[in-house]
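Batch manifest, entry 17 of 40.
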Amino acid sequence: MTKRVVITGMGVICPIGNDVQTYWNNLLEGVCGIDFIQSIPTDDLPVKIAGEVKNFNPADYEIEPAFARKQDKFTVYAVAAAWQAVKQAGLSSAEGGNIDSFRFGVYVGSGIGGFSTMMRESEKILTEGSRWVSPLFIPTMISNIAAGNIAIRNNACGPCLPVVTACATSTHAIGEAFRAIKYGYADAIIAGGSEAAIIPLAIAGFANAKALSRAEDPKYASLPFNRNRGGFVMAEGAAMLILEEYEHAKARGAEILGEISGYGNTCDAHHVTAPRPDGLTQSAAIRAALDEAGYTSDDVLYINAHGTGTALNDVSETMAFKQALGEDAYKAHISSTKGATGHMLGAAGAVEAVASVLALKNGIIPPTINLDEIEPECDLDYTPNTPVKADITMAASDSLGFGGHNGCLVFRKYTNE
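Output type: structure tokens
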């Protein structure tokens, strides 16, 4: 017998807020977290804007100074977001706690991992020799180490499965966690993603691949579904959700924020960077998630779109929505929150899943900011500039990654029936 899976905690570190409530308030107010890069010199870079995390203090999340100093930022952000989520959920696997440590898992991924660590240690071996490479290089750089550290700090001895599928990473991590709980392999899982890749090498690489926006005005640079769009804006941060088996959450009196009820996962099998132009495989992931969740035309649907603001993504994604939903695509509420946050790469799916849960819980559709000139081929309701109240019953969040990785999560408005 399959299990119901609910959300009992969430955490966010991102360019428009370092906690869930600040993030949500700023989404609704149309705050843009993109600005000129402050953390690195940009004189020699073709792109000088990004969505950086601001005013982040590790101590606010009970992270020790030595840990924060030694770890790559992607791990520190991940630990901070997980701390928020676990605290909200009220879970503890310590002696006398409320969850068996062997039934408590971690599914946290990163698209790239410790990129700044990789660059720093590479510079050392090239300029100073191999003996100066840090002994902590490997366990700081590898993409799974955020999951490992979260498991250590929370005594989570159950299934631990980091995912690496580029910009679909955290959507897949949450989806696979959902399946693990649904089929009885765990009682609760910390699921999400983290990324901290705002470094010269990453910016040069993405820019030279013609993926990044070259806009000079940071507040009008990330333009999903806008005819003026010119590429995505790189961002950093982390987001985590606590997925928990319904009866387990109910038995301990947890507050239930929402219910996850569907997951789809496909591959374009088309190109290493470009999405499949006909939307066929992307739509299959969306349709699979909706079918598992029991979607019908009677549902009032919100879709948090991948919506990167690249020329190919926005058009092919619009086609995918139409193929997955048919005529229902025209009545769905859709928005891309990347206009506000930028593209958090491996963390994007998780931060957008948080927005989807909050949209359901509060009955408000967050807007697509900067949508002043709609791309003619993107003719669905993309919620331009202003939030909209709606009694939505279901929310979907889709992600598309380099390599053709497609993922979609579907959440239902929670009822105890």
